[in-house]
Every structure is written in C-alpha cells, then in structure tokens.
Amino acid sequence: MWRLSNAYKTAVVILVIIVVCVVFAPSSAMADWTHPMSFSNAELSRSDFSGQELQACEFSNANMELANFSNADLRGAVMSASVMTLANLHGANLSNALVDQVDLTGADLSDAILQEALLLRATFKNVNINGADFTDAILDVAQVKELCNIARGVNKETGIKTRDSLGCR
Known about the structure:
Blueprint: H1 6-24, H2 27-32, H3 141-148, H4 162-166
C-alpha cells in the first residue's frame, strides 16, 4: 500500500483544483480572475519583468534564462517545466506558485518569498537563497538537504530565517 506524505497529498489537491478550474470555468470567469496572462512555451530569455504584478500568470514550458523577475509579484504563478537558469528572482513573491521541474541553476532567489510553493523536481544548483523564505513549500528530502547546505540569512519582508523555513537542523 502506498503511503503519501501530507506535502504530496497537498500538491495533488492543488493540481486537481487548478485543472478543474481551467477545464470547467467559462472564459468570462477566467477573465475576471485577477489578470492572468499566458506566456506558456514562450521565448522570454533576458526579459525584464522586474517589479511587475504577475499574479496567477502562466509561464509553463517557457525559456526564461537570464530573465529579471526582481521584486515581481508572482503569487500563484505557474512556471512548471521552465528554464530559469541565471534568472534574477531577488525579492520576488512566489507564494503558492507552481515551480515544479524548473531549472533554477545559477538563479538569484535572495529574499524571495516561496511560501507554500510547489518546488518538486526543481534544480537548485549554484543558487543564491540568502534570506529566501521557504515556509510550507513543497520540496523533496534531497532538495531540502541541498538547500540547507547553503541556507543563511533572514527574509527582509517576512522576518523568517532561511534555515528555519526549510526546517534545517
């Protein structure tokens, strides 16, 4: 019998809700849902989204290498299976975002807020997470171990220590 952790159960519930909302919502209802825009499958390398309000926008399967998202509001954004190598996410708010299977190699996540973000199978090689807040983010054990090795600082917005938000020992 399979035993799933609460984090995985939560991730599955979130994904099911998103699929149901997208598939069954009428187009007029979607238009009223903040202002989500789709950048799926787009070539966005070196794009500047700094300081922009991008809540619930979709960036799945996009190339965002060297893109600038510093201080952007990306709450609830979908970035699944994208390339974000060397991207600048300093101070970005990625709360409740889907950042699964994203290549974040060399990215700057300093002071980013990733509360309750889904980060499974994301790549974190050579990232800067100083002051990042991962409170209640969904990560696998190997990711947490890797991030705990480099975690330090306190998030300027939330006041949470990076190590505490990851549950490092």
